[in-house]
Design the sequence.
């Protein structure tokens, strides 16, 4: 779907933070992914309209980043590392267990749409091998039993991990008077307002 | 790209030899100009360098020792030393090629690019003989259609970014983009959003591999079977230079040629693929007659040239000259136009000749105003005023040049058009006056360029102080115009700011002048031009669309006009013409509207349509119909049967088309370039000049003596017409790509436009016989009064693709003509009682068409825009000639 009315309002606010609408492209894509769990074609079209880009430009830009998805994924995206440290500490077995217990292939999503299991290369937590991420939140030294417990907690909503696409659960909000007052560089004639403001505050 | 100014050079050393480079230019360019070709894939001199492919690596030393650098990204600097052939450079190029080939399929034997492929050629020249890559290459579905005409084979793509850069930087249609990253990167479109660009074919030409192919040429030929000739595109008046390629007497491909002054190598798809029509099986291949003469036995019968021409000559011979008329001729070469002008005016003696079908401008305006070249309009820092058609729809190659000038060279664009155009979003000021008020708006703009007048117009105190005099009157006039914002459709503030931009730009203003809406009378544009010509050193670029229309006007295919901008009633100057022509018309004749009116009355015995289709092309369909039915004998000289000849012609003569005969073409700047013969015409079709010469000989033996080749005709033109005096075989040979810019001596001497009459063209004065009806028809409300409630003022604009005869016979573009739409401002939707997408009937006092209603914020409130010549819905059924505005209503159906 396209953006919800609430997200439309948010999108307008996000655009206002930047000197040019186009600069808001990536933040708006995050917003769209947060809404639907992945980037739908409709959402990309709408984001393009909002920032003045063609859908091809939007998809081309988004496609550069692995964390943007163009197909539905589960509410919880589980990345199990099987690179060298994790491999030595049972990463492969952990992945196999994950797939077996959730009844999916690597890369697949459970029928209820809750979990997608993927194999990851080193996620830079080698000291905690074998490790995995759930929606990019780390869990280290995971045994098969730990994994089952994690799945139970996730199903029960006890982990505090938000659904796929949510980058942060606290939304930044800048009051209008604290906005930097940005405008395109070619319109700059004098020092930006925030500079003067900061100096005044420093003196005061 | 820019004007060549004497500038300091930068000295660099290339492979040991000293080379003078231009400051700021890229190393790859400097090396190429001095004779050292550096291999490349991504670099293209008409686009910004991106350094994608690394094929151009060479060793460069700028004082810190040699290091590998991509020569397309390194600007030259003084003392730079370059080694393009060192071991290191060679190894680097060899390595780059090996990597490029890692994923490149070896399907050259079935690839259209094979034989002209830079990847193939450069691998042979610089690459490794063997690959060390034994793994599986990446695979994609091949090929995918990314538009109606263009196919993409992603396996062959080497990710050079040329096509995507072209779409974004040059065409401004970024509908293709790199998707994915690293090894998974591919060029693609967004799902269900095809690469629907008018310029998509250029990507096929610049793709350095066979990844992009176009339907008309796919699997048609191998490059080594093709031979080519340099020619000029014929579909519009930009005259883009092209290479016409043929094999076995059939044109198979047209490529853009980089003419620095014209099209920079780019073409519209219409110019590129329009040749398909020439190969159509429906081309006329033999003369045809309909018996008996008169209206009109249904059956055609093929005839010999002798019989057809005899019959025509007999009819012409029997008719008094003023009852003979010739319409059309913009399709012809300059030489053929001259021959037809000579035949009609000098042999038959009729002046009822018009190459424009009510969709153009008075030749006195077009030829009489000081002319700009495309380069003048695009000169960095200048200002362009668009009072004319949407260049993107009508003059695509000009659009690309203007777009480049505005986006990259700081040219300011002020547009005064009835609706938004393809340039609106980059215009500094975009004013959309109500249909019919363009001239008043321009008047206000021109007045407002004088700050004193503005000041006085805005203040009673100052106004009172102004002594009675010109400025007082002007200030009062401006005050009135600024106060009439509602009637003009443009508010005072916009007028004043646009005027300020014009005032600052004094001296560097180019007006692109033409008919923005065919529902607005030519007089409106002509009056606007008269106002604009008051700006200091302003110049004009005529945006008449139709093929070689400028050549036709220079050759005298207009009423009251002789070759070389000489007026018929200007006795002193007729000397050279009189010497070469047996006779001259007794009096100035009728324009297209006048001819059709006379024919409808039964006053025309022979009506010759030279590549003209009045039913579809003339602004008033009803009049065209009545004229065609009323003429006693109708003759069509054409490539195809069109709607008009099918309706009314008694004699049809098949003509050779572009690529089938030699000659020259005059573009909208007045630039003459060769059109060349590459193949033979179908059947017994003949070049138009030959048909005219044959007829002339039959009517007046000796009149076409010696005129047996385009060269011979050109020589006579140069004698008769001062404009063509500089057009010699030497000058054409000396500038084979750029062509010769015709600038008559009078113009060079400072006379505006070199119009024969006087320093300033007498605008508004119409050549005798131009018919303006005494009383305006019902639609002719006072323009400033706007349309009555619930109705709209009609705007009729052309689109790139329409239902024209040539496009109908082009398989690749036939389906692209948009269906009829009636576009109105979203705020007006409610007043129609229907909604977006509704099937409606657009009704004027003169006729109606069926269309789909669409909301379009680019159309001002109160206006309704229809596309010209939509399939099955010709907008000229709504318009009556001689009206400045057309009022229409929308009815649900
Ligand atoms: S399709 Fe051709 S032009 Fe486009 S990036 Fe690939 S190789 Fe380059
Ligand atoms: S190997 Fe698994 S986190 Fe580094
Ligand atoms: S031509 Fe220089 S990097 Fe491609």
Sequence:
């Amino acid at each position: 779907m396209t953006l919800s009315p609430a997200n439309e309002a948010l999108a307008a606010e996000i655009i206002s933070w930047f000197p040019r609408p186009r600069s808001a492209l990536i933040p708006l894509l995050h917003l769209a992914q947060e809404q639907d769990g992945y980037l739908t074609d409709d959402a990309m079209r709408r984001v393009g309209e909002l920032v003045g880009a063609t859908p091809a430009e939007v998809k081309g830009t988004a496609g550069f980043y692995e964390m943007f998805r163009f197909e539905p994924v589960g509410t919880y995206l589980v990345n199990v590392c099987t690179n060298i440290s994790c491999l030595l500490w049972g990463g492969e077995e952990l992945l196999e267990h994950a797939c077996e217990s959730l009844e999916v292939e690597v890369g697949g999503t459970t029928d209820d749409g809750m979990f997608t299991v993927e194999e990851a290369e080193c996620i830079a937590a080698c000291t905690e091998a074998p490790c995995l991420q759930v929606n990019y939140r780390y869990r280290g030294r995971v045994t098969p039993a730990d994994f089952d417990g994690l799945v139970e907690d996730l199903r029960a909503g006890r982990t505090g991990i938000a659904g796929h696409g949510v980058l942060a659960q606290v939304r930044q909000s800048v009051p209008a008077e604290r906005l930097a007052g940005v405008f395109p560089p070619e319109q700059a004639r004098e020092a930006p307002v925030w500079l003067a403001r900061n100096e005044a505050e420093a003196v005061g | 790209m820019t004007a060549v100014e004497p500038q300091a050079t930068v000295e660099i050393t290339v492979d040991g030899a000293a080379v003078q480079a231009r400051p700021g230019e890229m190393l790859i360019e400097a090396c190429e100009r001095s004779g050292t070709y550096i291999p490349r894939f991504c670099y293209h001199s008409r686009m910004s360098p991106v350094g994608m492919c690394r094929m151009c690596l060479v060793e460069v030393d700028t004082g810190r020792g040699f290091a590998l650098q991509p020569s397309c990204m390194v600007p030259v600097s003084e003392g730079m030393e370059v080694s393009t052939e060192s071991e290191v450079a060679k190894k680097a190029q060899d390595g780059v090629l090996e990597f490029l080939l890692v994923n490149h399929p070896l399907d050259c034997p079935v690839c259209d690019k094979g034989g002209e492929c830079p990847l193939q050629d450069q691998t042979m020249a610089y690459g490794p003989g063997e690959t060390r890559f034994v793994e599986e290459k990446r695979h994609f579905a091949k090929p995918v259609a990314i538009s109606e005409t263009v196919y993409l084979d992603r396996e062959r793509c080497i990710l050079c970014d040329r096509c995507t850069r072209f779409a974004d930087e040059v065409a401004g249609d970024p509908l293709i983009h790199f998707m994915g990253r690293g090894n998974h990167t591919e060029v693609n479109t967004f799902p269900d959003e095809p690469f629907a660009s008018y310029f998509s074919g250029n990507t096929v030409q610049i793709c350095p591999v066979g990844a992009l192919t176009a339907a008309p040429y796919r699997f048609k030929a191998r490059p080594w079977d093709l031979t080519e000739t340099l020619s000029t595109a014929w579909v519009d008046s930009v005259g883009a230079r092209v290479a016409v390629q043929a094999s076995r007497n059939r044109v198979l491909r047209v490529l853009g040629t980089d003419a620095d002054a014209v099209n920079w190598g780019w073409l519209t798809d219409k110019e590129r693929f329009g040749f398909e029509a020439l190969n159509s099986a429906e081309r006329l291949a033999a003369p045809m007659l309909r018996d008996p003469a008169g209206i009109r036995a249904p059956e055609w019968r093929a005839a010999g040239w002798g019989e057809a021409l005899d019959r025509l000559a007999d009819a012409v011979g029997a008719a008094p000259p003023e009852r003979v008329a010739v319409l059309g001729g913009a399709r012809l070469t300059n030489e053929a136009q001259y021959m037809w002008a000579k035949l009609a005016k000098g042999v038959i003696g009729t002046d009822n000749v018009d190459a424009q079908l009510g969709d153009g401008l008075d030749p006195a305006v077009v030829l009489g105003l000081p002319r700009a070249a495309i380069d003048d309009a695009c000169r960095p820092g200048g200002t362009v005023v668009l009072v004319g058609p949407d260049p993107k729809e009508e003059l695509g190659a000009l659009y690309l040049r203007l777009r480049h000038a505005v986006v990259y060279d700081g040219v300011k664009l002020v547009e005064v058009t009835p609706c938004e155009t393809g340039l609106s979003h980059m215009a500094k000021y975009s004013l959309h006056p109500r249909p019919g008020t363009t001239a008043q708006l321009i008047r206000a703009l021109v007045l407002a360029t004088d700050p004193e007048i503005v000041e006085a117009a805005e203040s009673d105190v100052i106004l009172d102080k102004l002594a009675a005099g010109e400025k007082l009157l002007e200030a009062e006039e401006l005050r009135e115009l600024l106060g009439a914002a509602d009637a003009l459709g443009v508010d005072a503030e916009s007028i004043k700011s646009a005027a300020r931009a014009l005032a600052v730009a004094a001296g560097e203003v180019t007006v692109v002048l033409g008919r923005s809406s065919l529902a607005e009378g030519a007089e409106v544009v002509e009056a606007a031009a008269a106002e604009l010509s008051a700006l200091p050193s302003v110049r004009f670029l005529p945006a008449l669309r139709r093929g070689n229309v400028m050549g036709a006007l220079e050759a005298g295919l207009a009423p009251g006009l002789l070759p070389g901008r000489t007026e018929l009633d200007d006795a002193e100057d007729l000397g050279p013409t009189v010497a070469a022509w047996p006779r001259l018309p007794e009096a100035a004749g009728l324009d297209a509207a006048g001819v059709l009116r006379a024919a409808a009355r039964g006053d025309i015995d022979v009506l010759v349509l030279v590549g003209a289709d009045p039913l579809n092309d003339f602004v008033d369909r009803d009049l065209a119909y009545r004229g065609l039915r009323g003429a006693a004998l109708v003759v069509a000289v054409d490539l195809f049967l069109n709607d008009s000849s099918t309706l009314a012609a008694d004699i049809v003569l098949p003509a050779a088309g572009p690529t089938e005969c030699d000659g020259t073409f005059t573009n909208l700047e007045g630039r003459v370039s060769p059109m060349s013969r590459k193949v033979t015409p179908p059947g017994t079709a003949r070049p138009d000049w030959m048909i005219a010469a044959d007829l002339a000989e039959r009517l007046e033996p000796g009149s076409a003596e010696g005129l047996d080749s385009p060269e011979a005709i050109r020589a006579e033109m140069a004698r008769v017409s001062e404009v063509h005096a500089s057009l010699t075989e030497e000058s054409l040979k000396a500038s084979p790509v750029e062509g010769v810019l015709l600038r008559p001596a009078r113009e060079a001497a400072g006379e505006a436009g070199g119009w024969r009459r006087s320093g300033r063209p007498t605008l508004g004065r119409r050549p005798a016989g131009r018919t303006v009806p005494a009383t305006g028809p019902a639609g002719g409300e006072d323009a400033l009064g706007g349309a009555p409630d619930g109705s709209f003022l009609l705007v009729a604009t052309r689109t790139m693709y329409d239902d024209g005869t040539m496009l109908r016979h082009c398989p690749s573009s036939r389906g692209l003509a948009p269906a009829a739409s009636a576009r109105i401002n979203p705020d007006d939707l409610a007043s129609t009682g229907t909604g977006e997408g509704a099937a409606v009937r657009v009704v004027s006092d003169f006729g109606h068409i069926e269309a789909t209603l669409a909301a379009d914020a680019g159309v001002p409130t109160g206006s309704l825009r229809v596309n010209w010549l939509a399939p099955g819905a010709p907008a000229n059924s709504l318009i009556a000639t001689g009206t400045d505005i057309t009022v229409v209503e929308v009815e649900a159906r």
